[in-house]
Amino acid sequence: MRSYGLVAVVTGHHKAAHDADVFFLDIWVKQKGAWRALLIQDVPVAAADASVATAPPSSTDSQPHECENPCQTIPYRVRSPAEQDIVNAFQAIMNAIVAHDVGAWGKHVADEFVVYGSDRAPILKSGRMAAIERQKESNTAVTVGEVQTMRLAVYGDGAVMIATAAAPEGSRPPYRAARVWVKRNGQWQMAISAHTDVK
User: How many CA atoms lie within 13 A of 158 on its CB side?
Assistant: First the structure.
């Protein structure tokens, strides 16, 4: 278990049907003096070393992807300055992925960051940064999922973002993304991201 302010994250693995490895992410939040379950999400993952990076969806076209949603706009109305700061950080991360800007990406991501995706190996921060560098070297156009719906809740110095997203032109199945954010030294950083394909 790991705590991010008033947000607690319980993670682990269990076996599903056909002996498939499933990563689970349980997010708890403290409200009115009591811990309450906010989200329980399973992600079927590929077995591999978490330090090995696999690239996100990309195109063979070398032209930069025109990213309107989520890089410029998202279908969500912010309700507080903290939420606006988190949305700004999220959009900076998405813009950095599309632009192959590893420095800008790393600035908004916590050192303990791991991303989990359906049927992929987990990727640590260092592995994700290496993948962005490789995409820059090969001038590979990278796409990011367009946000369809989003919920965002701030609990002290922790926050939870839950979204449904779809890849442009259906290059991968729609998915649900759960992201945990932490505020450190006055800056919001993404600490964990879990993506489960919706089939």
Answer: 19
What is the DSSP secondary structure assignment for residue 150, as one 8-state letter? E
In CATH, which of 3.40.930.10, 3.60.20.40, 3.10.450.50, 1.10.630.10 is domain 47-197? Answer: 3.10.450.50
pLDDT, residue 52, reads 42
- Please answer whether residues 128 and 115 qualify as being in contact, where contact means their C-beta atoms are separated by less than 8 angstroms: yes
Let me know how long the chain is: 199
d(Cα 88, Cα 85) in Å, to the nearest integer?
Answer: 5
CA distances from 72 to 67, 88, 89, 174, 190 (A): 7, 10, 12, 20, 18
Residue type (1 letter), 177? A
pLDDT digits (tens, 9 = 90+) for 22-45: 999 999 999 999 999 999 999 998
Distance between terminal CA atoms of the chain?
A: 29
What pLDDT, in 10s, does the model give residues 147-191? 999 999 999 999 999 999 998 877 788 999 999 999 999 999 999
